Amino acid sequence: MILTNIKLKNIKYLILFFSLLLTQYGYAQQKPQSKPNILMIAVDDLNDFIGAMGNPDAITPNMDKLAKRGVLFTNAHCQAPLCGPSRASILTGLRPSSTGIYGMIADNDIKQVNSLTANTKNLPQYFKDAGYRILGVGKVFHQHFPDGLLDEDGGASEYGPNPATKFKWDKKGTATDWGAFPQTDQEMPDDHATEWTVSQLAKRHDDPFFLSVGFIRPHVPWYVPQKWFDLYDPAKLHLPPYLANDRDDLPAITKKIDDWPMMPTAEWAIKNNEWRNILQAYLACVTYTDHNIGRVLDALEKSDYANNTIIVLWSDHGYRLGEKNTFAKVSLWDRATRAPLMFAGAGISSSKKIDKPVELIDIYPTIIDLAGLNPYKANEGFSLKPLIINENAKWKHPAITTWGKNNHSIKTADFRFIQYEDGSQELYDILKDPNEWHNLAPEQRYSRTINKLKKQLPKTNKDWAKESFYNANEYFKNKGLLKDTVMP
Ligand SMILES: [Ca+2]
Ligand SMILES: [Ca+2]
């Protein structure tokens, strides 16, 4: 009897063991994901006009909520202050000075990109090779995802729709204009990108996914439907810091590089009483995009992937709204180089704000680190995971932005230093002068500081890649800039 009991017990255990094994196997079949999913949200030309970043006017409940449930970097800087080269740097993990990608490239052409980057794997490709499904829509890469990369393709970006005639600003060479248009959200390309992303989150994915969505607004033209304009009273908006003679202490080359005849100047905006209208339009676009981000995040929250997805949100650079006398990106000052950067989701602690200078090139190594993939040696940035875990962790890296060949800016905790290709320099004590109004470079007492900062400039300065658009812009050549400084 005892023996039989033991045998029966054993059989019971065996059954239990096999059923557990089957359950395990069945679970593995049904949900093979041990790796977290990635949701990457790219926003175009978004500066720090976010409530969570201290803007007093911006209505951005969804980005504020994301910042609250994750980690917000308030001092992150692009590697190039223009869409194409910034995105090339974020997605290849390489500096513009290492690739020569200072202007736009046809980044959908993988052969072209590979030839400029010594076959460095782009960020989604790295995940693809690790077994991820790659899904994407909108402006993530500048043109579109490289051919063959996406397993599910939601389509490339469009900037439209446009009214028959521009409302306020009709200069050639820029899409800049502002006003309420079109009538409905459904006519906006970002609406399609949102819906496609939401539909992907509602689907069953058996493999872990890397889902990217790229929103166009607040990139120009600053057109969104009237209801988004109605959220803001222009008379009550806070004007950005402005100093009439701010440009008087700039080196000659800065003024040449920053002379964009197609863009409105702050003086024009003041004289024509348009500054507050531009701010209203930009903020309307920001809130419209925040609304779309909210729709995506709500869909994630309701999905099977709510607890197993890492979210990263970035903008490709900032945007000047009157600072330094113009409305544009394309410069080496803070408002153009600084961009929002947030991480949230699986395993990331909440309500952290980190003000150490970091770089968008750090996104690539950070995401692979957070996902538990092997580090990629080609990455020139550094994983931010140590800071995400402990905001007081040591961080010795400055943030470097490059605008054309051999024009660099370095942002440290104390200073912004800029050196141009002809040796001209700017230095700002950002603790005393956060608006970067007073150029200290000519002052002898700062020579030691400058020498120290100069040592951190990139040692490699590749020629402009001939594939980079705008490489032969006659306008800037005619202005007598050195051969390599060719601007869009
Ligand atoms: Ca951009
Ligand atoms: Ca100044």
**Which residues form runs of ≥5 with pLDDT under 50?**
1-6, 18-32, 471-476, 478-488
Counting copies of identical and different chains, the oligomeric state is single chain
Q: How many discrete structural domains?
A: 1
State the name of the first-level CATH class: Alpha Beta
| Class from helix and strand fractions | alpha/beta
CATH architecture: 3-Layer(aba) Sandwich
Helix content: 25-40%
Bound molecules: calcium ion
Using only C-alpha atoms, the radius of gyration works out to 25 Å
Number of helices: 16
Strand order of the largest sheet: 5-4-7-1-9-12-2-13
Number of E-state strands: 18
Major sheet description: 8 strands, mixed
Strand content range: 5-15%
Q: Judging from the principal axes of the Cα atoms, what is the shape?
A: globular
Q: Write down the overall mean pLDDT.
A: 90
CATH superfamily: Alkaline Phosphatase, subunit A
User: Within the CATH hierarchy, at the fold level, what is the topology?
Assistant: Alkaline Phosphatase, subunit A
Distance between the termini: 91 Å
